[in-house]
Amino acid sequence: MNTTGARRKTTGRVSREFNLFSFLWRFAASLALILATYNPAGKSYYHWLQSSMAAGTLGAEHFVTGVLLLIGWVMLLAATQRSLGPIGLLLGGALLGGLVWLSIDFGLLDINSVSELSWIILVCVAALLAIGLSWSHVWRRLTGQFEVDDGDG
After folding, report:
1. Tens digit of pLDDT for each residue in 55-70?
2. Does residue 92 fall inside a structural domain?
3. Residue 153 lies in a domain
4. Contact yes or no for 29/132 (Cβ under 8 A)
5. Cys-Cys crosslink for 35: which of 39, 97, 120, 146, Cβ 3.0 to 4.6 Å?
6. Are 126 and 31 in contact (CB under 8 A)?
7. Which pTM value belongs to this model?
């Protein structure tokens, strides 16, 4: 056993250390799910479904894709809800909204259209989901305590 308390990396095994790359991976996965579901560019499941409904060409591929997206959303939302809870979600959303507002006030963001605002909101939702997916790791780093899901709820 390592007496210094530091984790030893074993050859051939994936490190369980949480780092910036771990967070960015969760952010990328969250953003991919969100943008696959809807995005202002018009290349999303929402737009594909809408055009297929108008053309009368709905099929099994629409159903299967919708179910796969729904599975992804349920997994991310459930994990985020369990990790952050309602107050954490509210505080995280308020913080991200405040950061956007601050960025606009400082001239870092210039929102001239609904499309631009939509992109910013989608990125913020992805960030909130990534924070929720990462929070247990961050909490353990900050406090040394493990969060345990007791199965309630």
Report:
1. 999 999 999 999 999 9
2. yes
3. no
4. no
5. 39
6. yes
7. 0.76
Tokens of 101: 């507002």
- For 109, phi then psi, to 5°, come to -120, 140
- With residue 82 as reference, give the H or E element that holds it: helix 60-105
Domain assignment present for 150 = no
Dihedral sign (CA 144, 84, 134, 66): positive
Q: Which tens digit of pLDDT belongs to each residue from 108-136? A: 988 888 899 999 999 999 999 999 988 87
Three-state secondary structure readout of 17-61: CCCHHHHHHHHHHHHHHHHHHCCCCCCCHHHHHHHHHHHCCCCHH
| 110: containing domain | 20-140
Helices 45-55 and 60-105 cross at an angle (nearest 10°) of: 130
